[in-house]
Design goal:
The complex is a heterodimer. Chain A is built from no helices and 11 strands. In chain B, strands 2, 4, 5, 6, 9, 10 and 11 form a 7-stranded mixed β-sheet that branches. Classes of the chains: A mainly beta, B mainly beta.
């Protein structure tokens, strides 16, 4: 049972435009959400996170939106740059319930077209 | 700081052989974990540890053993390798305080079991 789902395996976006990556979750105990970026032959690197007490968190070109009622979050990258081409993983944990374990989605491969 | 280091980078085993994947971190992080990444499956948690002497199972623990005798090291042992354990293995660590929830990943070990 996939508790964190990324339904788009791949996404192509023109350089300079907005990239929107989506993630859905089913476990209502999840209260902390993260996005990781992964280049080939490297480990994932942390990008941005959001707590369930917020509905938006911004860091430079990256913004994460959380819709708790829909159990949906999205990552917006604007403007998109060639270096953003990577696989993006959504992850969730239930920190307030003492559970620090991360549950990952299957990833979305983002390709930025110059 | 070297961050999270993993050795070896690549390994080929025959079915039935045993081996240990090494993981070390120099950030004095309490939390360490092992994941495996398979195509179309995202990252799945194998085992984790919340401190020296404390380990617990993740989502896919069968066939793997861990121990945590020091804060720095968290080796993963394959007891009797099987082709189903062919995967890329990532070790991660996380500290408490600022940035809690953000796991730092090593570069990975690519394991092939013939």
């Amino acid at each position: 049972d996939q508790q964190v789902k990324q339904n788009s395996p791949s996404l192509s976006v023109q350089e300079g435009r907005i990239s929107i990556l989506n993630c859905d979750y089913t476990n209502s105990m999840f209260d902390y959400f993260l996005w990781y970026k992964k280049y080939p032959a490297e480990g994932p690197t942390f990008l941005i996170s959001i707590s369930s007490i917020k509905d938006k968190n911004e860091d430079g070109r990256f913004t994460v939106f959380l819709n708790k009622s829909a159990k949906h979050l999205s990552l917006h990258i604007v403007p998109s740059q060639p270096g953003d081409s990577a696989v993006y993983f959504c992850a969730a944990s239930a920190r307030n319930f003492g559970n620090e374990k991360l549950t990952f989605g299957t990833g979305t491969r983002l390709t930025i077209i110059p | 700081n070297a961050g999270v280091t993993q050795t070896p980078k690549f390994q080929v085993l025959k079915t039935g052989q045993s081996m240990t994947l090494q993981c070390a971190q120099d950030m004095n992080h309490e939390y360490m974990s092992w994941y495996r990444q398979d195509p179309g499956m995202g990252l799945r948690l194998i085992h984790y540890s919340v401190g020296a002497g404390i380990t617990d199972q993740g989502e896919v623990p069968n066939g793997y053993n861990v121990s945590r005798s020091t804060t720095e090291d968290f080796p993963l042992r394959l007891l009797s390798a099987a082709p189903s354990q062919t995967s890329v293995y990532f070790c991660a660590s996380m500290g408490r305080g600022a940035g809690w929830g953000e796991q730092f990943f090593g570069p990975g070990t690519r394991l092939t079991v013939l």
